[in-house]
Specification:
binds ligand Z5A; 8 helices; single chain; alpha/beta; 12% strand; Rossmann fold
């Protein structure tokens, strides 16, 4: 059985990950390929509980190191119980956020050491790496304005503007460092224009399959 392809979708909040994952998946499925979608933190019952702990922790402060380790604990459940079995069964997996989120938020945003994050990545999922990462990019104020149309922000969403500038910059640097893995799409345009780009990307992936 040929291993499926592992695609991750990244970006700061409000750039349109959810909206564009639906488009990407529809294109792949229309070619007769089975796709599993998942998200991080989350994707399994225990990992979703960790997500809930991370986002709504009550009054107790969440140390930055605990935040990083909980992201990887949740990831470990998702990789072993959902992502790896699906890939081995030949399905394609589309994951809403993965380890590049830890690099961008905990590394770029919080300033935790990137070499520790890379070591955790190697340890937790060294054998499961994304084949392609779609980075949806827009200026911070665009993403925040879109996200603000929803309800009250969770703990990470409540961070200041500068935090998200650091996160965005880190994402863009990651894309420059690994041009073979990253595809960057500018989502400060209309949803129709962005979805047309996502459709073209899907066709390229399918033609390479
Ligand atoms: N996190 C972390 O710190 N470390 C980690 O390792 C991991 C995660 C894995 C949860 O992420 C939090 O976890 C996240 C990072 C952290 N915290 N923050 N911030 P999440 O993915 O669940 O939450 P999110 O990034 O906040 O998702 P989101 O706000 O739902 O964003 P989105 O999915 O990218 O956006 P959307 O829902 O598709 O679009 C937002 C709105 O904009 C919606 O009304 C759309 O209709 C509209 N939209 C989308 N595109 C367009 C365009 N092009 N034009 C106009 N309007 C648009």
């Amino acid at each position: 059985m040929k291993r499926g392809r592992f695609i991750t979708v990244e970006g700061i909040e409000g750039v349109g990950k959810s909206s564009n994952i639906d488009t990407l998946v529809a294109h792949i499925e229309s070619a007769g390929i089975e796709v599993l979608t998942t998200r991080e933190p989350g994707g399994t019952p225990v990992a979703e509980e960790i997500r809930n702990l991370l986002m709504h922790h009550g009054d107790e402060a969440v140390p930055e190191i605990a935040e990083l380790l909980l992201m990887f604990a949740a990831r470990s459940f998702n990789v072993r119980n959902v992502i790896q079995p699906a890939l081995e069964a030949g399905k394609w997996v589309v994951c809403d956020r993965f380890t590049d989120s830890s690099r961008a938020y905990q590394g770029g945003g919080r300033g935790l050491p990137m070499d520790i994050i890379d070591q955790l990545a190697e340890w937790v999922h060294g054998d499961v790496r994304p084949d392609l990462t779609l980075l949806l990019d827009a200026p911070v104020q665009v993403g925040m304005a879109r996200a603000n149309h929803r309800g009250s922000p969770d703990r990470i969403e409540s961070e200041q503007h500068e935090f998200f500038e650091r996160v965005r910059e880190c994402y863009l640097n990651l894309a420059v460092r690994e041009p073979g893995r990253f595809v960057v799409i500018d989502t400060a345009r209309s949803l129709e224009e962005v979805q047309a780009d996502v459709g073209r990307l899907a066709q390229r992936l399918l033609s390479e399959n």
